[in-house]
């Protein structure tokens, strides 16, 4: 039995900022699909945070991630995660 020949072309990895934008696009699509299927936004947010933190812990370890999240309260208060900017 013969199998079709498949070609795998090695691609240069995307620059970090392009990878992040691509990842965000994938997540936005998945998020929209889940919302369309009736999944609550708060549940999505909590599941996303869990998955993200679990990935970071797997990559960098618990101590490094704990140190990273220590700075989140200040960043949240400074508006880094707010989608609507106050008009001045």
Provide key terms for this protein:
4 helices; mainly alpha; 88 residues
Strand content: under 5%
Which secondary-structure class do the elements indicate? Answer: mainly alpha
Helix content class: 55-70%
Low-confidence segments, given as residue ranges, are none
Q: Characterize the largest beta sheet: strand count, sense, and whether it forms a barrel.
A: none
Task: Give the gist of this structure.
The chain has 88 residues and is mainly α. 64% of the residues lie in helices and 0% in strands.
Question: Could you walk me through the main structural features you see in this protein, from its secondary elements to its overall organization?
Answer:
- This protein is an all-alpha fold and about 90 residues long.
- Helices cover about 65% and strands about 0% of the residues.
- It is built from four helices and no strands.
- The protein has helices at about 15-35, 40-60, 60-70, 70-75.
- Helix 2 packs across helix 3.
- The longest helix has 21 residues, at about 15-35.
- The protein is extended.
- The mean pLDDT is about 90.
